[in-house]
């Protein structure tokens, strides 16, 4: 879609309705040659906060700016960054501290207002009218994806089923120590042809309280996916982020019931398997100033919490027992968890056990802990409730915006490829009218 401003400037944004991992092309035309303009992106989040990004451009000899091809000379990003208007979004000046942009309702789009302003602006975007604007919708759920609440056999979650008759390969999607039910990644996986169920755990309202994590809960969740009539029962994988990695590895190595076809672990560790009193042990370490501290901006740093990596076999998942392909995704500026050191120890343990050939490790320079789907704005630190103490803090996650954005884009592509190769996925069949 495109729109003309009062000065005949033409702004084109394609597509105006697409998935969140789909690239946008933003083009401005009908400008004078060498005209300075600012491209601005504004998003009003579900928690009533405003996020923005902007780049400074000069039109070419034909009076055009193509964000995918031209360099930004300033703003929230610089250089040739076709998706910089999305991944560099940050809270507008004056916002409260510790915000993180996350989509709560996946049945509605994330809408962004993309505008072009004359001159190179750094503020005052609401004070004067733009010369042209376009609204674009970014979706986690593709048309035809079904969202199904799961509350059965003691398990709480949400199932996302791709369009078409199936059956589909399945994915059990697990997040980290923040708890709650987080749906957007599972919805996006379903949009790419996986029957994905996101699982709620670490919640006092269900049976597996902090002090009572049990393998049976995760085994039952895995079985619910396997038994679904639209799922290929012997083609189910597990994806976990942060503490979800500990759960993923524990299930893959210790369960006699849940036998995943492959596992993806993002920003996690094999230390503290769920067979140990995880949160009691972490609570003990949290009082050690050499393990946990506040940085100069009063952000809580857990980087050293699990260092040095223990040599006690009882305190680590025995990854030598893994029998399926395993993908580890980490950032080398993770300030929340010692993921790189954990990955090295996992590789050593698997080498000794003779299953190192099953392991693929991706380590991204300059990336932090919160490696999310592509073009998600980077969050270096954000509000967090420590699960074992219920203390409200601002947690340091790490990462630098540009490097972290590159890591998110590349890792998502490789995660999807890994899942497709190991779960034997067929391309989803969409009805002709089922287009974003």
Would you give an account of this structure?
By secondary structure, this protein is an alpha/beta fold. The protein folds into two domains: 2-139, Acyl-CoA thioester hydrolase/BAAT N-terminal domain (Immunoglobulin-like), CATH 2.60.40.2240; 146-423, Rossmann fold (3-Layer(aba) Sandwich). Helices cover 19% and strands 28% of the residues. It has an eight-stranded mixed beta sheet with strand order 11-12-14-13-15-16-19-20, sandwiched between helices. It has a six-stranded mixed beta sheet with strand order 3-10-9-5-6-8. The active site is at residues 242, 334, 369. It holds the Pfam family Bile_Hydr_Trans. InterPro entries: AB_hydrolase_fold (IPR029058), Acyl-CoA_thioEstase_long-chain (IPR016662), BAAT_C (IPR014940), Thio_Ohase/aa_AcTrfase (IPR006862), Thio_Ohase/BAAT_N (IPR042490).
The CATH class of the largest domain is Alpha Beta
> What structural class is derived from the secondary structure elements?
alpha/beta
Helix and strand pattern: EEEEEEEHEEEEEEHEHEHEHEEEHEEEH
Average pLDDT number: 91
Number of strands: 22
Family: Belongs to the C/M/P thioester hydrolase family.
Pfam families: BAAT_C, Bile_Hydr_Trans
Domain BAAT/Acyl-CoA thioester hydrolase C-terminal: 214-424
InterPro entries: AB_hydrolase_fold, Acyl-CoA_thioEstase_long-chain, BAAT_C, Thio_Ohase/aa_AcTrfase, Thio_Ohase/BAAT_N
Give me the secondary-structure topology.
Layout: E1 2-4, E2 10-14, E3 17-19, E4 25-29, E5 36-44, E6 50-58, E7 65-66, H1 84-87, E8 90-91, E9 110-118, E10 132-139, E11 146-152, E12 155-161, E13 168-174, H2 184-191, E14 195-199, H3 215-226, E15 231-241, H4 243-254, E16 263-266, H5 278-285, E17 293-294, E18 300-301, E19 326-331, H6 339-353, E20 359-364, E21 381-385, E22 392-396, H7 401-423
Parallel strand pairs: 3-10, 13-14, 13-15, 15-16, 16-19, 19-20
Antiparallel strand pairs: 1-2, 2-4, 4-7, 5-6, 5-9, 6-8, 9-10, 11-12, 12-14, 17-18, 21-22
